[in-house]
User: Fold this.
Amino acid sequence: MQFKKLKSRLLMMNWFGIIAGVLMLILPFLGPWWRASVGTKALEIGISPFYYHVSILGQELSSTLVSYFILAAQLTLIIGGVLMILGSLAPEKWWSKKIVRFGAMKIFWFLIILLALLLVGAYAMNNFLPGLAMNATGTEGVTLDLQALDIQVPYITGTTTSTLQASGITIAAPIHADLTPMFWLAVITAGLGIIIRIYHGRLTEEPETEEKEEKSEEKEEEEIDEKELSLLSESQ
Assistant:
């Protein structure tokens, strides 16, 4: 009987939610999802919603404001992961669906925000930065004789070359950008989150049906017992 209950309990759990919850707990500490480099590591960038690294000529840059945003994102995802696991362990509870929904789409929206920022950033640098830089050369105090500037930043991934021509010198700098394996792990986690939103609702309905069936069986057994007792009393 105990083995049967344990088996029923294990089958009732939302294993997709448990796996996704564990991934949500470890993703904030696995490093960048996207990275880029300019030249021979003259500029290096590595970012994710939970990670930030920028270095120029080996000198790392830091920002207190960005660190606070990253900490808030980490705490949000960790809380979402814990709630996801708790709700998946007990899908029959009334609060399970609510807390699972809270965490299910967190990674998905982090991915959307990151990709949107990368696309907008690349578009702005390719289309607006050269014009701003050329206009700045005509202002007072700027001594650089900038003759031409062509910035080509990859849209999310790829390799391009940007050129700068100033004072008769032309400088070409290759720019390389790519998505790390951690990004694809985040995509898998986001996919699980979408599945969980659909699948978990069915799990919360099944326990209610099973509970009704168990009560119906218990009632039938009680009626049978009462009939047997009445027959025994009549025979006596």
